[in-house]
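Today's session is about reading a structure prediction critically. Students often jump straight to the picture, but the first step is always the sequence itself: look for stretches that repeat, for charged clusters, for runs of hydrophobic residues. Only then move on to the predicted structure, which in these notes is written as discrete structure tokens rather than atom positions. Here is the chain we will use throughout the hour.
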Amino acid sequence: MRTFGVEEELLIVDPVTGEPLALADALLSAPAHDDAAHDGPAHDGPAHDGQDGPEAGPPLEEIDGPDTGLSHELKLEQIETQTRPCRSYAELLHQIRRGRGLASHAARRHGARIAALATSPVDAALHTTPDPRYAIMLERFGITAHEQLTCGFHVHTSIESPEEGVMVLDRIRDKLAVFTAMSANSPYWRGLATGFESYRTQAWNRWPSSGPSAIFGSLAAYRRVVRRLIETGVLLDEGMVYFDARLSRHVPTVEVRVADVCLRAEDAALIAVLVRALVETSVREYHAGIEPAAVPTALLRMASWQASNFGLRSELLDFGTFRPEPAADVVWSLVEYLEPVLAEQGEFDLVQAGVAAILSRGNGAIEQRGVAGRWSETNGGTPDAAGLAAVVEHAVQITMRSERDESDTKPQPVLTWVRQDWREAPG
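Below is the predicted structure for this chain, in token form.
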């Protein structure tokens, strides 16, 4: 069984107003743990990838100490947690909750809270972490860098070699949008209702190298594409190659980067289990001589946009036909596709229950909209300041919740229909 681990980016917020607070330096200036919160080093891989986004900087051990499991991001209003490499859902869930606990403990020492929100519902001035690289990014990329207060969820899955990793990248690219929909947790952007379930995806995709990638075919081709991107002079370095999935630069993993940070820790662990199964399934297909589906990158961009826009509310583009299908059907079809590996690893029943729970209560975006709607003073559900503050307060509570209430969760039927290949779709 492959090891896997995650990085979670979290907001630091005012517990009353919901505003993001520029306290990352303060939170990281002293140990963020005590005997109750700390159970050993959080970081011995796979997690922090050094310069892995605009949230990038020196490796964790150079900034914050190897035993905290916390690190800086691009903005001082956010903080990142990293897990150890794990082998099971239960182990990973424990690590995710532990990381959130460390961050919460540090925030509370300064009168703040942490919230697993992929964008800030409440507007506030933003502050960039003091770092020469970030200063260059602000100068070169302007408003894109200035406004980039987004919190993602990155899943690392171990690979045997970079060559194997590229074979994985080529075979998972057409299925990644499903994870965007399942994790969608950013319907509000600095005081505005965006009309999207994952507006983080829209904000993130303003970076020049973000989004889905083409089929590479070999490690040499992957390296050549990365080199050519850097040679354009647009990107600062390899750390700014922001593909939806990529090879980690510092640890032997494939890193899937399409998800919003999840409101609920158990949803985050579930998505990581699905990603790991997808990686393993892709490796098996490669060894069986199954070629990657030659889906045009333009179609992948449409699938990503659709997932960002609708989440689980309506329809997604099915990863076989790239035509609209009910979101629940597309999610269940991914589970069905991964069933052989999930069953072999003893995770199929767990995944079925977790997916049924998400489809029953909704993802983080649906939950946020529900809270804001109850507080709204307008019939149309447009959130007011009190409603958005309530969204943040609710997120603070759910971020730290240790158990899922399954009293209203009903099992959903597993989809059994046969999907067309996209190349055979009519018209």
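Discussion point for the tutorial: The radius of gyration is 20 Å.
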